[in-house]
Amino acid sequence: MISKFKISLKVESGSVQYNLGYQLYGALMERLPPNMCELLHRDGIAPLSQCFVYDRRAEEYCWQICAFDGILAESIRNVLQQQSTIRIESEGIHFSIQDIATERIASARELMLQAKEAFENASLIQVKFVTPTSFKQNGQYVLYPTVQMMVGNLVHKWNALNSDMVIEDEYAVNQIMEGLSIHSYKLQSANFTMKGIRVSGFVGEVLLKPRLPEPLLEIAKLLFYFANYSGIGIKSTLGMGGASTAAIKARVRTGSEHNK
Predict the structure, then answer these.
(1) How far lies 34's CA from each of 42, 106, 172, in Å?
(2) What is the signed CA dihedral for 35, 38, 39, 41, rounded to 10 degrees?
(3) What is the pLDDT of residue 196?
């Protein structure tokens, strides 16, 4: 169902001035077989998401690629195994590949079990937008992540990329949208550069407060756990919408705190 590749990159020459997700996508397309490039250029949601971020803890750049097609995943694996360096000629940047970590999730059921464990006893759902993110509505970019847009986008991606368990109940989806609220947010504007133009977006985080019955809460958890792989918003194949989600658990108060 999902194959994830996390590639650690070191800058050998040049300087990273802005997010290079689109340029890395281009480098990957140059090396994939023609039939895989054709697959990614078909109309609709492409079975690939990828993003480029700087990992402050590890002090290195990280390129994450998620494939939602088995043959595509194998093609990407073959490309990565044959490369020790990645050159972005247009930017004068040369990366060396330090490490490639892989992860595979075989089924929707396995993903649901992981989501349930990851968000167990969560009082809030943290959603970090780690690369410039945007939505589009009525032909205009939307620079704020509403619950309706996040959930709607994730349901759309889930149904397009997963055939095992499609979410078709519109009433349930609407109930999830109504049962999630934005508890707090910390966002800032950020542009994404592609084809010489800048796409307006944002980065940062929101905290979501769920007030849902258990069956709908499980679906919400699944969708926001899935976001770690699918991304959120538009152009996630090109490097936008990279997401990281986690549970914020209620702090258990001790007896001494209750007595204060």
Answers:
(1) 13, 26, 40
(2) 160
(3) 83
8: exposed, middle or buried (Cβ count in 10 Å: 0-12, 13-18, 19+) = middle
CA-closest candidate to residue 190, choices 148, 144, 159: 144
Model pLDDT, residue 138: 87
Structural domain contains residue 256 = no
The yes-or-no verdict on residue 252 having pLDDT over 80 is no
- Within 13 Å, how many C-alpha atoms sit on residue 126's CB side? 13
**Please, what is the end-to-end C-alpha distance for the chain in angstroms?**
51
Out of 70, 105, 140, a domain closes at: 105
What is the rounded average pLDDT of the residues 37-41? 95
Contact between 25 and 41 under an 8 Å Cβ cutoff? The reply is: no
Are residue 229 and residue 129 in the same domain, yes or no?
A: yes
Domain with 189 in it: 108-249
> How many distinct structural domains can be found in the chain?
2
Range with lowest mean pLDDT among 35-39, 45-49, 160-164, 221-225: 160-164
Nearby residues of 249 by Cβ (< 8 Å), 6 or more positions away: 121, 122, 123
Last residue of a domain, one of 64, 89, 105: 105
Average pLDDT over residues 134-159: 93
Q: How far is CA 135 from its chain centroid? A: 14
* 21 within a domain of the structure (yes/no): yes
Taking only the tens place, the pLDDT of each residue in 174-213 is 999 999 999 999 999 999 988 888 899 999 999 999 999 9
pTM reported for the whole predicted model: 0.93
CATH number for the domain spanning 18: value is: 3.30.70.1890
